[in-house]
Amino acid sequence: MIKEFENKIINADCLDILKKLPDKSIDCILTDPPYKQEYHTSTGTEKTIKRENYSKIGAYGSNSNLDYTELFYLMVQKLKKVNMFIFCDKETKYDFMVLAKKNGFCFREIPFLKTAPTPFTNNQWLPNIEWGIHIYNELPVMGDYTTKKGWFVMPNFKEAGIDHPTPKRVDVVGMILQNITRENDLVFDAFSGSGTTAVVCHNLKRRFICVEKDFNYWKTSCKRLQDHQKQGVLF
After folding, report:
1. What does the pLDDT read at residue 40?
2. Is the separation of the CB atoms in 143 and 134 below 8 Å?
3. CA–CA distance, 128 with 32 (Å, rounded to integer)
């Protein structure tokens, strides 16, 4: 089953694919699940952000009632050792921190500080921080002084020129994977979106299994990976 999926981006539901994989078969999970888009205003009332990009993310499957519990335990079951890095907003981060703490796992919050955030205030704090959380157990953090810093500063978190609402930067994902994986490790991405994880794994000589449910994003990400692989051959 591993060989059938290895080094491919699969158009499917991530839970369906995870259930098919053997237990303790994956070295690392790095993924970017849909964020929770509802937030509380300064008056304490709940409100949904209506900006165009947030609407796209909402259509991608995000809502305030998402329950990541089944996904979390499936990921733990399939990992050789607990080793997952999850990009998240403050609400999603809290959910995964609670699950990690409940199960006695170590976790590290990583802030991504944006120097040119979206100019959206509306009586709220400026949205200039996104988060990642590394959940692990009995696992060294590798890399070196230049890659394993506990925070990142950048103009924007998105990879330029990619048609996706939240395409993570190749250089950032690369540094993270250098810290928590070794060459030839198998990396699983449950919400592969624009295909960044696949591109980075190709660059760093990691094996990967990526899953994307949305057909259009899947098709675009497959082409992105194929184009990148061809460039690697040429140069």
Report:
1. 45
2. no
3. 18
**Residue 112 in tokens:** 């991504």
Mean predicted confidence (pLDDT) in 93-107: 95
**What is the per-residue burial (b if ≥16 Cβ within 10 Å, else e) of 125-145?**
eeeeebbbbbbbeebeeebee
Distant-in-sequence, close-in-space partners of 198: CB < 8 Å, separation ≥ 6: 7, 9, 189, 192, 208, 210, 221, 225
Residue type, 230: K
* Contact (Cβ atoms closer than 8 angstroms) between residue 34 and residue 61: yes
Residue type, 101: K
Alpha helices in 79-162 (DSSP H): 90-102
Contacts of 197 (CB under 8 A, 6+ apart): 30, 31, 173, 187, 189, 208, 210
Q: Say what the pLDDT of residue 156 is.
A: 64
Give pLDDT, residue 70. 92
Sequence length of the chain is 235
Report pTM. 0.82
- How far apart CA 22 and CA 79 sit, in angstroms, is 9
CA 162 to mean position of chain CA atoms: 16
What is residue 143's predicted lDDT score, i.e. its pLDDT? Answer: 79
